[in-house]
Write a structure and sequence with these properties.
InterPro entries: Peptidase_S8/S53_dom_sf, Sedolisin_dom, Tripeptidyl-peptidase_I. This is Peptidase S8. It comes from Sinomonas flava. This protein is of the alpha/beta class and 421 residues long. It has one domain: Rossmann fold, CATH 3.40.50. It is built from 10 helices and 20 strands. The strands form 5 sheets. Strands 5, 6, 7, 8, 10, 12, 13 and 16 form an 8-stranded mixed beta sheet that branches. Strands 1, 3, 4, 17 and 18 form a 5-stranded antiparallel beta sheet that branches. Strand 12 and strand 13 form a beta hairpin.
Length: 421
């Protein structure tokens, strides 16, 4: 996706949308049959043409069996042209100060704790682009030279993988989101050789071994899967492992968000609300994923919350994800050489925000013996309860419709300071 400076460039077409609508039932039927062979589910493999598509585009391709797709989306204008600007962030984009204001993070520092980002493929200009983002907003420099930024391959070395545009845009969103939510956090980026769960999982294991890492963000997902197969990649007591719920509305569970070992992060829409006590209004983002795992054990901490799911229920918490209503200003690559400003969201934005709040709270790391996803359930009163909005139709109402208390779309709610983390 190339960008002409200062202009709105229409992205390549994603397909003939009327034909997609006519054939969606047939495609779903074929995927049901394929599920028996591949282990995927029609629900998780068939993103609808719905509200999440109206004013944004996805940046990564659909995942193949055994792989994940990044959960980043770029905001567009009503004609479908991406919102971008060569010199400054779009005027509608969320700034770091606005993000911290919305979640009452001002005045809280991490003391230099490290948030790890796991993504697929390489991004050769990551450090350069991150410097541009942080300079724009007056944030302290975060470089490899000053020890704030570390970039590794999936095995912990420096043989970084080949460039992939979509996943590089995902990485730009992730590191900018951590910078916005936690300006003094150190950032470690671990780049998997491909989007396979094996390679991404190996990268998570590498991230968990790095000194100082207290949270690991995974802004990607694929079909619901079993912890018996992949859980070893995400099972790290003491470290907050967060995962995006997905961006296609209610489609059933998505892995690794459906893992019993991670904090599953749903998405919201966030808008200024002058005159209110909080100053912000937050509702469910229609694009957020949610669901009930067919494989994994329920969280003991969630007992009594009425999830309606005998197994692992997504989600635990949420944060802003709507690309158009709360999308973050991001300095992102348009090719292997060039970059510009745009506005991004998806639950790919929510996951690194929540990982950063864990780092700010300071309760994860060597002193924590259990899994960090239990912490919010013990402190639900320290969250903003999001009680309105829906992400589609589902067999159990609370899986796809917000209500007071826990619901599948936004979990227990969104950060109100760091008390719940």
């Amino acid at each position: 996706m190339e960008v002409v400076a200062g202009q709105l460039q229409k992205p390549p077409p994603e397909g003939a949308f009327p034909i997609r609508k006519l054939l969606s039932a047939a495609v779903a039927g074929l995927l049901v049959a394929a599920a028996a062979v591949t282990g995927t589910t029609a629900a998780s493999a068939t993103p609808p043409v719905g509200k999440a598509d109206e004013h944004s585009i996805k940046v990564c391709s659909d995942p193949r069996p055994g792989e994940a797709a990044c959960a980043a989306r770029q905001a567009t204008d009503p004609t479908g042209r991406v919102i971008t600007n060569a010199t400054t962030p779009p005027g509608t984009a969320l700034t770091p100060s606005q993000l911290r204001s919305a979640y009452r993070l001002d005045g809280t520092a991490s003391g230099g704790r490290t948030v790890a980002i796991v993504d697929a493929y390489g991004y050769p200009n990551l450090e350069r682009d991150l410097a541009t983002y942080r300079q724009q907003y007056g944030l302290p420099a975060c470089t490899t030279a000053n020890g704030c930024l570390t970039i590794l391959d999936q095995n912990g070395g420096t043989r970084l993988p080949r460039f992939d545009l979509g996943w590089a845009q995902e990485q730009a969103l992730d590191v900018d989101a951590v910078s916005a939510a936690c300006p003094d956090c150190r950032i470690t980026v671990v780049q998997a050789a491909s989007a396979s769960f094996t390679n991404l999982g190996t990268a998570v294991q590498t991230a968990a071994r790095q000194p100082g890492v207290v949270a690991i963000s995974n802004s990607y997902g694929g079909s619901d899967a079993s912890d018996a197969t992949y859980g070893k990649y995400y099972r790290f007591p003491g470290i907050a492992v967060t995962a995006s719920a997905g961006d296609s509305g209610y489609q059933g569970a998505s892995y690794p968000a459906s893992s019993s070992y991670v904090t599953a992060v749903g998405g919201t829409s966030l808008n200024p609300a002058p005159g209110t006590a909080r100053g912000w209004a937050e509702t469910t983002w229609s694009g957020t994923g949610s669901g009930c795992s067919a494989y994994n054990a329920p969280l003991a901490a969630a007992a009594g919350y009425g999830t309606g799911c005998a197994n692992r229920a997504m989600n635990d918490v949420a944060a802003v994800s709507d690309p158009s209503n709360g999308g973050l200003g991001v300095f992102y690559p348009t090719s292997s050489k060039s970059s510009t400003w745009g506005q991004f969201g998806g639950t790919s934005l929510a996951s690194p925000i929540i990982a950063s709040v864990y780092a700010l709270a300071g309760h994860t790391g060597a002193g924590l013996t259990g899994y960090a996803n239990a912490i919010p359930y013990a402190h639900a009163g320290s969250l903003f309860d999001v009680a309105s909005g829906s992400n589609g139709s589902c067999p159990t109402a609370q899986w796809c419709t917000a209500r007071s208390g826990w619901d599948g779309v936004t979990g227990l709610g969104t950060p109100n300071g760091v008390g719940a983390f």
